[in-house]
């Protein structure tokens, strides 16, 4: 496989993902302007900085709160419908301010709905893409999802500035996130693509427990059992679903939900027919109705799932928290370094723009690294590079050195673009995978909270150089943990 193969490019820009990639970028535009809009509206109402910060924290809080509920819903419903509902809800969240004006109630409603809807969308699109993509190009697809978000965060403020210069009324500012969300909704809603499995398709892979059954299940995964095919839309290859190992006998992966099945021996024969497996959507043949799944799933089942996956959750979770903390503190420590050197606001803005422009345009490097190297090796460059950059940051006290380090941070961060999403996606076929995605997303959000609190405590008690060196050592530790501590999934 070449560094950037034709397969990787077609997987990224192909029709199967184009609508999701475009919707992802549009939602990124809306997300990028949420905090500036809340700040400007709060200032117009006459709020102090502390109260404005409280409204901003509402967005972040409900973004995190949405993770687990959305993951539970993702295991039960069509993911495209969940994404469609989320982006439409984000557009609807702008309506109270547009119709009622800028009041404390309408602004709070916008913050709550925006935070929850974006949290649900980003989780759902991660699960959907992870289950749909070709594993050989997983890194590049995830890198593009992350990279397009970074580019969207550069475009969003530009659109907001244009609206602000044309119309002075702050209500019109909400046209940016509302318009972006409605366009994203159209992308998902009117896409011609729908993943579906044929009616009365055999379910052998959901019940395979013996060597003979596993062999027949493999034939099913290749698209045929006894002349029965599993069709999808023209232009695509047949679905190659996961073959379950012994012990995992009570699930069926429908690429839109993972559902428990009745384990009655009368229904556990390979090649049994009569049930429908697929995604629930507007097509009749996509309705999901599986025997044995009536009545929902008991909370005890989710607890057992968490216990079964606990070894992966805590080991991968430590790496995710460390990586997220290192990335988050890059911006903060660069700002502190610039303040020490007496940078003006214009110089500081240029410094940060320079740094983030590197990873915004070099994000394919992360996908190339993930698709052409082992996962074990791919976990090293980003955290190790960030650690070394933090160690080098306080060595020189000059503006030129700071610009060089800003560029270094940007290039190194690009090497990790899509890394976390890919590492989590490697476990996409686990029992109740949606719940696993939700837990890991919550862990990722915890990394942002922990990093901000840690820097706030350290900067008041220690010198800048000590603080920077601490994060440098932590980056080296993260590399060691990524090599020895994180489990390697079977690809």
From TrEMBL:
Where it sits in the cell: the answer is: Cell membrane
Q: Which UniProt keywords apply?
A: Cell membrane, Membrane, Transmembrane, Transmembrane helix, Transport
Gene Ontology MF terms in the entry: transmembrane transporter activity
Task: List, alphabetically, the GO terms of the cellular component aspect.
Answer: plasma membrane
Q: What single Pfam family name could you report for this chain, choosing any that match?
A: MFS_1
| Membrane topology qualifier | Multi-pass membrane protein
Q: Where are the transmembrane segments?
A: 20-41, 82-101, 107-128, 140-166, 172-195, 312-328, 348-370, 377-395, 401-425, 464-484
The entry's protein name is Drug resistance protein
């Amino acid at each position: 496989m070449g560094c950037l193969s034709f397969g990787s490019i077609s997987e990224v820009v192909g029709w199967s993902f184009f609508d999701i990639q475009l919707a992802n970028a549009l939602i990124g535009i809306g997300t990028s302007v949420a905090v500036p809009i809340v700040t400007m509206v709060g200032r117009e109402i006459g709020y102090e900085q502390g109260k404005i910060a409280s409204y901003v924290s509402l967005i972040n809080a409900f973004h995190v709160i949405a993770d687990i509920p959305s993951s539970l819903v993702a295991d039960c419903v069509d993911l495209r419908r969940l994404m469609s509902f989320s982006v439409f809800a984000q557009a609807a969240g702008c309506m109270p301010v547009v119709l009622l004006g800028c009041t404390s109630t309408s602004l709070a409603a916008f913050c709550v709905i925006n935070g929850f809807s974006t949290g649900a969308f980003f989780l759902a699109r991660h699960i959907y893409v992870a289950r749909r993509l070709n594993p050989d190009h997983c890194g590049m697809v995830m890198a593009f999802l992350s990279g397009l978000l970074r580019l969207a965060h550069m475009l969003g403020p530009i659109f907001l500035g244009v609206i602000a210069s044309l119309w002075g009324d702050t209500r019109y500012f909400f046209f940016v996130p509302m318009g972006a969300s409605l366009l994203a909704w159209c992308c998902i809603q009117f896409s011609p693509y729908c993943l579906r499995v044929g009616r009365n398709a055999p379910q052998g892979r959901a019940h395979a427990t013996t060597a003979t059954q596993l062999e027949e299940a493999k034939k099913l995964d290749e698209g045929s059992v006894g002349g029965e095919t599993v069709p999808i839309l023209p232009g695509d290859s047949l679905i190659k679903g996961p073959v379950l190992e012994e012990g995992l006998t009570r699930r069926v992966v429908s690429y839109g939900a993972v559902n428990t099945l009745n384990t009655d021996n009368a229904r556990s024969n390979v090649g049994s027919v009569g049930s429908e497996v697929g995604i629930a959507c507007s097509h009749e043949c996509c309705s999901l109705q599986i025997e044995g799944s009536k009545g929902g799933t008991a909370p005890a089942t989710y607890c057992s799932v968490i216990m079964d996956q606990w070894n992966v959750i805590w080991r991968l979770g430590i790496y995710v928290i460390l990586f997220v903390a290192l990335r988050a503190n890059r911006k903060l420590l660069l700002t502190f370094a610039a303040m020490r050197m007496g940078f003006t606001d214009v110089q500081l803005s240029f410094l940060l723009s320079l740094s983030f422009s590197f990873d915004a345009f070099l994000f394919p490097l992360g996908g190339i690294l993930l698709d052409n190297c082992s996962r074990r090796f791919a976990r090293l460059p980003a955290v190790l590079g960030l650690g070394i950059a933090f160690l080098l940051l306080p060595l020189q006290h000059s503006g030129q050195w700071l610009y060089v380090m800003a560029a270094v941070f940007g290039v190194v961060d690009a090497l990790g673009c899509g890394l976390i999403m890919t590492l989590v996606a490697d476990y996409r076929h686990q029992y109740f995978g949606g719940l696993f995605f939700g837990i890991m997303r919550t862990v990722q959000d915890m990394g942002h909270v922990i990093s901000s609190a840690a820097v706030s405590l350290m900067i008041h008690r220690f010198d800048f150089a000590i603080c920077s060196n601490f994060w440098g050592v932590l980056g080296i530790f993260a590399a060691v943990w990524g090599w020895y501590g994180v489990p390697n999934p079977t690809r």
